[in-house]
Amino acid sequence: MKSYFDFDKRVERRGTGSVKWDLRDNDVIPMWVADMDFESPREVRDAIEKRARHGVYGYTAESDSLYKAVIDWVSRRHNWTTEREWIVFTPGVMPGIREILQVLTRPGDKVILQSPVYAPFFRAIRDSGCHVMNNQLKYENKRYTMDFLDLEEKARDPRTKALILCNPHNPVGRVWTQEELTRLGNICLENEVVVISDEIHCDIIYKGYKHIPLASICDEFAENTITSIAPSKTFNLAGLNTAYLVIPNARIRREYANTILPKRATIFGGIAAEAAYTYGDEWLDALLDYLRGNRDFLIGYINARLPQIKTAEPEGTYLAWLDCRELGMDNDSLEGFMLEKAGLWVNQGYSFGSGGEGFVRMNIGCPRSTLEKALRRLDTAISSL
Question: Which residues contact 369 (CB under 8 A, 6 or more apart)?
């Protein structure tokens, strides 16, 4: 491991305009929005600094080398062969999903979600004039699974035009297996439901699990899937506003081009993505080791000291999904308890839709000392009840 992979290093983020750190007072530990408190790889910083010294920041097209870096990364890390013409750059995963919804749906159509799930999906569907069809996940023995019988019923509705898949799943941390994905993919194919697959967390996978892009399973799934990916979660680049859609279906690509104003990767976002995808393998492998240590520390602490809290072991992402229902609090009380008594800013489970009530989402993408401090605060707050 290279010496500069120091994930224990505390980087001061207050005063930088950080959404995560600058929106509440200094007494609260922010463990909510999904960005990490680690410096991006040195090669990324060097590439940005080199371009910044040029001094001219006009309109910029994506380079051949950026496309190659994206294609090579997806092939190397996820065994998925993609083509340059399939790739469309967007300012972020959610802007891309909103645009695809404009292409695939008309007002009054229905779109399937699998709650509890990333909250902005709900608004994106409603803003497009569509209705949310909730195929709620099943939670048993601290593990989530899909309700395929309910999914089949909702997919058969002739007004259902799309399904937004979250893989790996945010917030519950599941990395869907090939068997699960194949069953979902077949249901959607049989009912002419296009899958919009949010795979932004695809690189944050723990040992023993494997991310499988839905579109990589077979040609039929590829033709029926739009995949949304970004380097932002992997390399902590969310502020650079660069993501991409992978659209193998030529008809959907044409409709997208005819409906949506063309977007480009930002100057620094494109440069950062290329550097990260070209040089970032070793850094990412070291990050995954560190995050696994954080995950195991969290689970060990909860099991040993906080029996009122339960947690499913995350298979991917740096987000922990904590079951706080045994504390016996309603949504408002739990939110107030976490902020005012524990001094922790976490995401409240109810915001992720039905099935999230009584849970909180905690971001563990931070130095271990921060995580330990947060858990001690939670321990003290629960002990005082």
Answer: 8, 10
Note whether 171 and 239 are same-domain residues: yes
DSSP code string of 86-116: GEEEES-HHHHHHHHHHHH--TT-EEEE-SS
Residues 241, 98: Cα–Cα separation, whole Å = 15
Domain boundary among 279, 308, 329: 279
What's the domain count of the chain?
2
Q: Say if 15 falls within a structural domain.
A: no
The pair of three-digit structure tokens given for residue 351, joined into one six-digit string: 């915001």
Question: Mind spelling out the 3-state secondary structure of 180-205?
Answer: HHHHHHHHHHHCCCEEEEECCCCCCE
Distance from the first to the final alpha carbon of the chain: 44
pLDDT in tens, 195-249: 999 999 999 999 999 999 999 999 999 999 999 999 999 999 999 999 999 999 9
Both structure tokens of 30:
């922010």
Q: Does residue 48 sit within a domain?
A: no
Q: Determine the structural domain holding residue 85 and report its residue range.
A: 56-279
Judgement on whether residues 75 and 164 belong to the same structural domain of the protein = yes
CATH code of the domain covering residue 33: 3.90.1150.10
Do residues 231 and 276 touch, judged by C-beta distance below 8 A? yes
Query: pLDDT tens digits for 351-364?
Result: 999 999 999 999 99
State how far the Cα of 350 lies from the Cα of 116, in Å rounded to an integer.
Answer: 8
How many angstroms separate the most distant Cα atoms in the chain? 60
Contacts of 293-301 with CB under 8 Å at 24 or more apart are: 293/368, 294/318, 294/364, 294/365, 294/366, 294/368, 294/371, 295/206, 295/320, 295/364, 297/368, 297/371, 297/372, 298/362, 298/364, 298/371, 298/375, 301/372, 301/375, 301/379
* Entry pTM: 0.96
Give me the amino acid identity at 130: C
CA 364 to CA 300: how far, in whole Å? 14
Tokens 């569907």 belong to residue: 125
